Every structure is written in C-alpha cells, then in structure tokens.
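To make this tangible, this section ends with a sequence with its structure tokens:
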Amino acid sequence: MYIKAESCPCFTVRSRPYTMLRKSVTESFGAAISSLNAAHLTDGVIRRSKRMMLDTLGVGLLGTRTPVFNVAFQHSKRFQARENSSVWGRPGSFLPPYYAAFVNGVAVHSMDFDDTWHPATHPSGAMLPALLALAESLPSKLSGLELLLAFNVGLEVQGRLLRFSKEAHNIPKRFHPPTVVGVMGSAAATAKLLGLSPAKSVAALAIACSFAGAPMANAATQTKPLHLGNAGRWGLEASQLALLGLEGNKQILDLESGFRIFYQDYIPHHLAEVSPTAHYRWVLEDQDIAFKRFPAHLGMHWVADAATKVRAKILANEPNADLNQIKRVTLRVPSSRYIDCPLPATEHQARHSFQFNCCSALLDGEVTVDSFSSKLMDRKALRELLPKVHLENPQDNQASFDKMYCEIMVEMNEGETYTARCNTFYGHWRNPLSQEHLVRKFKANASTVLTTDAVDGIVQIIDSLETIPDCSVLGSYMQFHKHIHREEACYSASA
C-alpha cells in the first residue's frame, strides 16, 4: 500500500507531498518465507521441532490402524501420477504427493493424538506429511536441514497468523484452526522446500487461503481427521500452483475480505525484515508445544489428571473403596459445547467428552489408547457412572488452553466428599514431556505398526536430522511393517 510521506516519521516534507512504497503485511510474509535460511535456525528451535516431528510420525503410524484412515486410503488409491510418495504403514503403497499428504495427514489426526500449540491449533500434522510427500517426489535429494527449515517456516507462519487475533487464543467455536492456519502453514512450508520467490510465496498464501476453513460442527466425528489431511494437501497444491505461475490477491493477509474473514478481531502486523546473517526470533522460541499422553481433545487432559488425583485420595482413605458407590461427580471446567458430551456413542465423541474421560480416569486410574475401545466404552461400570457426572462452568475458568483448569468433586454414597484440581497437566507446554517420555510414547505408537529396527531407526534419524543428507529416507522407514517379512519390507520400501 502507499503511505503519504508526511505521515511517515522517517521523512520531513515541507514543500510538496509525495508517496513511498511500503510492503503490505502479505508481502512481508512472502519476503520472510523466501529469505529465511538454515543459519537462522537456533539450537532450541531445532530441538523443539524435532520433538514435534517424532511425535507426529508416531501418532501417524498408530493412526494407520483406524477406520477413517482406511476410508481415506481407499478413496485416494483411485488417483495415479508419475510422481509418487509413500503411504505410512503400508509397505509398497504409493500415491501422488497430494494424496499421500492427505492420507498421512488423516492418520496423524485420526485419534486426536497429535501435538497442540497456543494459540490453539495442531501445527505439525498440517505440514509434515506434505513436506515428506513433496521431498520424496522431487528429482533432487533434500537434506534433513532443508526439511527442518521448511517445517519451521510453516510453523512460523501459523504462529504469527494466530497472534493477530485474541479470539484465536481461546478454545475454538467457529472454525477448526488447522483448516485455517494449518493450510497456510503447509503452503508456506512447501513453498520454502520448492524455493519459491517472494512473489510466488505470496501467491501460494493467497491460493491456500481459498482452500481454508472448516466448521467446528464436524468435531467429534470421522470427518474431523480429514481437516488435517486437507490442510497438508491443499497447502502443497497451493505452492505447486504458484510454482506454475498461478496468482491470487497480493494482499490476502491485509484485506477485510481476505484472511480476516476467519477471525473477527484480526489485526495483522508486518513480519520483521529478515537479514541473511542477523538473528531471527522464531515464535517457537517463545511458545513450546503440548504433547498428549493419550488420544483425546487437549481439554480432556486436565480432566484426566484431576480425576486421577481424586481417585488416589479416595483409595488412600479407603483402599478397598467400591468406586461404583460414587453418588455424584461435579466437574468445574470451561464452557465449550463440543467437548460437553454426556453420553458418547462413538470413540470420536468419547475423545471429546469431559464426562467420559473423567469416568475412565476414575475407574482405571488413567486414560490410555485402549480406553476408547468398544470393550471399555461399553462396560457396565462406565455406563452407570456417566449419568452421575455434572458440569459447572465457573466464570473464572476461561476457555483457553493457556488459562483453563479442571476441578473435580466426588461425593460417595456414605457421605464422604473428595476434591482435586489440575491447573497444568503433564505434557502441557508449561510442563512438557521429558525426552525420555516423548521417545517412549513414539515407540509405543510406532511399534504397533513397524518393526523394532524401523522404530529405532526413525528415532536415530530424527535425533540427527540436521546432518542427514536425504530426508526422504524417513518415507522408507515409515513402510517397514512388522507383519511383513523383513526382506519383503526392505524391497517394498525401496521399490
């Protein structure tokens, strides 16, 4: 846009006014995407982003066992192309890069087990599948350092866009954030991997914005995992279209009719100029990531921790207590309709149910992957306990993953009352998982699909990713299925 010189503090004009050209917010993003280089990556950013990648690959592998992944995979097998990329957990299966990004992204979010950022979104699943699919399809090898850089560029775009809105800091009500900022991050990340110019990076963002947005009404359904698959796929397609010369609105991040339609209080700011050698302050340096210990909506982790604490108090006071004798459970949580599901009928509803996760933790002392199996969901003790859970929404309990808490009060039939509270669960960005526990989570997830050698190999690759000359080797390891004979798996992965 143009700014009059007399309104700019850098100029003093006494005779005649004139104008100077200033970059729009959108142009500043395009310039940053193109200009950021590996020298800007700090040790802290590399360490945090590698943790995100490892966790994403693990939950993605576990997700290849879900019905929603199988539906997406069967659909995508209809399409063919000359360039093909690996399907995770399916030896010898390859798809066009767009569809590999799609089905692998669906796998990542199929159990709501993937990482969560603040302001709220699932950042990694929207980008990593697309980046790995693209890296496998390009004629030249891309290094692990190039992958790390592109991943962090996409992460930076997501983080900056989210910070332009106060609404985005809260538990979402209208749009699922990965479909809004995730597709923009995927476009930026793949644009970086393709080496697009500032102008074409702007075009990629503009194109991606027309692919963005999905309503929260599809939360707690099989459609929600498609949001992550589409974010990666459409972001990749946007950057490929921009590479071929397709253009969009060059002020897509500035205009009220552009990206602003997703957040009513959106006020964009220019990104800082990127110097080739000067330090760049990444959002990831200031805001860590939450990693989930069990596959459910992030809000469920406060509930599970509080319920586990109160169970321990009950059993400490009465070791042989019969938990079927609970009279009433009161949960004090933020108000959020789509995670208030009193009697969940499906595993996806259960993953978004304060009540279900509270009862599972009370009965079992923890919530795990198996908690959402039909066997445990349909057991009599849980079904009898669910109607006894009542929700309260205190005014001071804000619907924000950074500020919320969960307080639980359990009343027994004999009259005893027990309470507990969780302000920050283990795995939250304020209380992050240790590296030991993160690796343990990855191995538990990945080993359901891959051989032990492949699981250990992925851990080693991610650990030294910045030194790996060809990042597409990850795609090969992701196909070493444990139920396929080793030699056959090796052949399939390299076919």
Residues 1-21, 485-495 have pLDDT under 50 and may be disordered. Strands lie at 2-4, 19-21, 85-86, 94-95, 326-332, 389-392, 406-412, 417-422. The two ends are 52 Å apart (CA to CA). The CA atoms of residues 324 and 381 lie 7 Å apart.
